[in-house]
TrEMBL record:
It is found in: Cytoplasm. The keyword Ribonucleoprotein does not apply. Belongs to the PEP-utilizing enzyme family. Residues 13-282 form the PEP-utilising enzyme C-terminal domain. The keyword Magnesium applies. Coiled coil: none annotated. It comes from Paraoerskovia sediminicola. The chain holds residues 187 to 504 of 505 of the full protein. Its main location: cytoplasm. This is Phosphoenolpyruvate-protein phosphotransferase. Its EC number is 2.7.3.9. It catalyses: L-histidyl-[protein] + phosphoenolpyruvate = N(pros)-phospho-L-histidyl-[protein] + pyruvate. General (non sugar-specific) component of the phosphoenolpyruvate-dependent sugar phosphotransferase system (sugar PTS). This major carbohydrate active-transport system catalyzes the phosphorylation of incoming sugar substrates concomitantly with their translocation across the cell membrane. Enzyme I transfers the phosphoryl group from phosphoenolpyruvate (PEP) to the phosphoryl carrier protein (HPr). Keywords: Cytoplasm, Kinase, Magnesium, Metal-binding, Phosphotransferase system, Sugar transport, Transferase, Transport.
């Protein structure tokens, strides 16, 4: 976080030259949506729907889901809310969506993969999202977690379309999907990069292991290159690419992400004012230059140092 005084956010993220960058909130369950709305987030870039049902042994009914989703959507009238379909597995297992015979759950049947094993649950969730969206005035987008192939993206988008949900996108958090973002975004309406898992899988380092924190760093040049490649696919297809992993909440790294081509940043709500304050001091061309330097670095430490060294405005803000 930036040092110094407490900041507020006026509700519109932009760079110094006026380029819009949507600043959105990550939320878990209905209880998290009120603080996000109060913090002035432009909307929700990641609604982790599985958080509504952690600890349950049986799947929620469609009606129960509609109630949960409506409570969240009602907080954001007229604003964008990106609902992620259930992302069960590894660090956040749902009992009714887990296989107990896996030795490596981080590499197992998780995220969208659970929908091939329990297809009715995806259908019911999409039905519930579509019903809630029809009853509330939020601008509802839907995205799938842990997409790894073009075929999975195509299948998910077609299932969404069957429920009348046309703003259907994918999370890019598996390196294979980052490398195939062109064809994936030929099918999906948008992509949101999950830097927490993208870093874990690019670096082969468990995101929950503190002893691997140096590897689990989104400033790793290999991770930045995967993000750049994802943005290139978005540009080729004319589709927006956002970031919804923790990387978006680091103000200096957020500039690099914008320079790489990301057009929205979704983060924990309390980080939004600091990210907004730095963003509005730097032009998009300057962000691009920072991104070039970061991409050319050979280590996360070098990337951080070269970018910070080119930002004298940090001293002023601090
Ligand atoms: C991510 O992986 O970066 C992400 C945003 O999703 P989660 O942290 O819920 O896995
Ligand atoms: Mg993830």
């Amino acid at each position: 976080r930036l040092a110094g005084r407490r900041r507020t956010f006026d509700g519109t993220g932009r760079t110094a030259d006026g380029t819009r960058v949507q600043l959105l909130a990550n939320i878990g369950d209905p209880a998290g949506s009120a603080p996000a709305a109060a913090a002035g987030a432009e909307g929700v870039g990641l609604f982790r729907s599985e958080f509504c049902f952690l600890g349950r042994e049986t799947p929620p009914s469609v009606d129960e889901q509609v109630e949960q989703y409506r409570t969240v959507l009602a907080q954001f009238p007229g604003r964008k809310v990106v609902v992620r379909t259930l992302d069960s597995g590894a660090d956040k297992p749902l009992e009714f969506l887990s296989s107990d015979d896996e030795e490596n759950p981080a590499l197992g049947v998780r995220g969208l993969r659970t929908a091939t094993r329990w297809p009715d649950l995806l259908e019911e969730q999409l039905e519930a999202i579509a019903t809630a969206a029809a009853q509330e005035a939020a601008d509802v987008w839907v995205m799938a977690p842990m997409v790894s192939t073009v075929g999975e993206a195509e299948w998910f988008v077609s299932r969404c379309a069957a429920h009348g949900l046309d703003r259907a996108g994918v999370m890019i958090e598996v390196p294979s999907a980052a490398l195939l973002s062109g064809p994936i975004l030929g099918r999906a309406a948008f992509a949101s990069i999950g830097t927490n898992d993208l870093t874990q899988y690019a670096m082969a380092a468990d995101r929950l292991l503190g002893s691997l924190a140096e590897l689990n760093d989104p400033w790793q040049p290999a991770v930045l290159r995967l993000i750049a490649e994802t943005c290139r696919g978005g540009e080729l297809q004319g589709r927006p690419v956002g970031v919804c992993g923790e990387a978006a909440s680091q103000p200096v790294l957020a500039l690099v992400l914008v320079g790489l081509g990301v057009s929205s940043l979704s983060m924990t709500a309390r980080a939004i004012p600091d990210v907004a304050a730095l963003l509005e001091r730097v032009t998009v061309d300057e962000c691009r230059e920072l991104a070039r330097y970061a991409l050319a670095a050979e280590s996360p430490g070098d990337a951080r140092a070269v970018v910070r060294g080119r930002l004298p405005v940090l001293d002023e803000l601090g």
